Amino acid sequence: MASTNDLKNGMVLNLEGQLWQVQEFQHVKPGKGPAFVRTTLRQIPSGKVVDKTFNAGIKVETANVDRRTMTYLYKEGEDFVFMDKDTYDQIPVGPGVVGDAAKFLLENSDATVAMHDGSVLYIELPAAVELVVTYTEPGLQGDRSSGGTKPATVETGAQVLVPLFIDNGEKIKVDTRDGKYLSRA
């Protein structure tokens, strides 16, 4: 059990038998009336996002979540196989749990795997990954109709919008949260 004053981003709560991850929280002390905590919660299995308000200081049940850094090894059928760096155990993770992170997973790259009662809840990638551009059209210098970007396919198969000066074979940094180009690597 934890108080609503102890909430942090990424904390997992057990509310009414369901697991919810705190995306954002804000302590509010209005001019009159009691203080409260406004939160944005994401349901872990489904990904549904809701806003919920708690009175300040009340107790909420936290879930015991084990976060480990694991190495992504390979894809076996539909499942993604991760290896625990400490015990060398290999864990298959379904595509529903991996979700959009699959677009940026490279073999032998690290990811944070969150587990609860032996089942994998979600996968967290680093904020940015470095990927090699496998195919992109040559950018024409005078072409500015698309805001100076063009589509590019990276080594994982994901499509990323990149500036016109990026060529095939270049290494770029991509934000894993929204799939946007950040810079050259």
TrEMBL record:
The UniProt GO MF terms for this protein read: translation elongation factor activity
What top-level branch of life does the organism fall under? Bacteria
Translation elongation factor P/YeiP central domain location is 67-121
Cellular component terms (Gene Ontology): cytosol
Provide the GO biological process annotations. Answer: peptide biosynthetic process
Q: The Elongation factor P C-terminal domain covers which part of the protein?
A: 129-184
- Keyword annotations of the record: Cytoplasm, Elongation factor, Protein biosynthesis
| Subcellular localization(s) per the UniProt record | Cytoplasm
* Pfam families (UniProt xref): EFP, EFP_N, Elong-fact-P_C
Residues of the signal peptide: none
Q: In which pathway does it act?
A: Protein biosynthesis; polypeptide chain elongation
Extract the Gene3D superfamilies matched here: 2.30.30.30, Nucleic acid-binding proteins (2.40.50.140)
InterPro entries tied to this protein: Elong-fact-P_C, NA-bd_OB-fold, Rib_uL2_dom2, Transl_elong_fac_P/YeiP, Transl_elong_KOW-like, Transl_elong_P/YeiP_cen, Transl_elong_P/YeiP_CS, Transl_elongation_fac_P
**Is Cytoplasm included in the keywords of this UniProt record?**
yes
- On whether Cell wall biogenesis/degradation is a keyword of this UniProt record, the answer is no
Annotated function:
Involved in peptide bond synthesis. Stimulates efficient translation and peptide-bond synthesis on native or reconstituted 70S ribosomes in vitro. Probably functions indirectly by altering the affinity of the ribosome for aminoacyl-tRNA, thus increasing their reactivity as acceptors for peptidyl transferase.
Q: Which HAMAP family does this entry report, sorted A to Z?
A: EF_P (MF_00141)
Q: What family is reported?
A: Belongs to the elongation factor P family.
Q: What is this protein called?
A: Elongation factor P
Query: What is the native source organism of this protein?
Result: Glycomyces artemisiae
**Gene this protein is translated from:** efp
